[in-house]
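Handover notes (outgoing to incoming on-call)

Open items:
1. Class I SAM-dependent methyltransferase: sequence verified, structure written out, both below. Nothing else pending on this one.
2. Nothing else urgent.
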Amino acid sequence: MSKMLTTVEDVFTMLDTMLQDNRSFNWDTFYSNRERNVPFFVNKPDENLVHYLEHQMVPKGNILDLGCGPGRNAIYLAKNGFTVDALDSSQEAIVWAREQAAENEAAVNFLQGNMFQLELKNKFYDVVYDSGCLHHIAPHRRISYLELLNKVLKPKGFYALTCFVEGGDLGGSELSDIEVYRERSLHGGLGFTEEKLKNIFKNFKIIQMRRMIQVPDTEPVFGVSGLWTALFQKKE
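Class I SAM-dependent methyltransferase structure tokens:
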């Protein structure tokens, strides 16, 4: 990046580039091998998401699924009465998700691209769901992430997520924010504590925050230890 830094977005883009330059990982390569032994490569919805719907904790309406991957949660939501926009940065993930949605006769509007660059300003959602996206976002982009939530969520809308526990079984780097930039790496994904999540989403009302329940593989839902689940509500 050779241009002068004159805006906040210029600074963010520079930091994005710093981290990308030192990163060999590629999401398209990751999703291209569908036989990979990855816990969430199953067509099952998150156990906490099923819990929210079964206990009527979120309203049915328009929902945005951030970092949808192969589409397992988006498909479940569409088949349970939601109008679903599902977004992922990986083209391979979106191709897979569309195939699975067709097989399951689920109507989902899949979008491929950078969540901070796609035009969603005319969309207003009752719910935003993030299963495994937040912990792959660099610290400076949390500002952009919160701006996105506040822009697209309706007043009193709901935001739900699953993310790595700090030092958890699935990963969850214990790096501090400043160490991310010193090492130019997220170390596979940042972990969070309850205190950190409450601080990041301090302007939201906490409806529920707990660890994800470990669920046997024979069950029709996805649940593994090492993840936080949280449901927040946007304040008026």
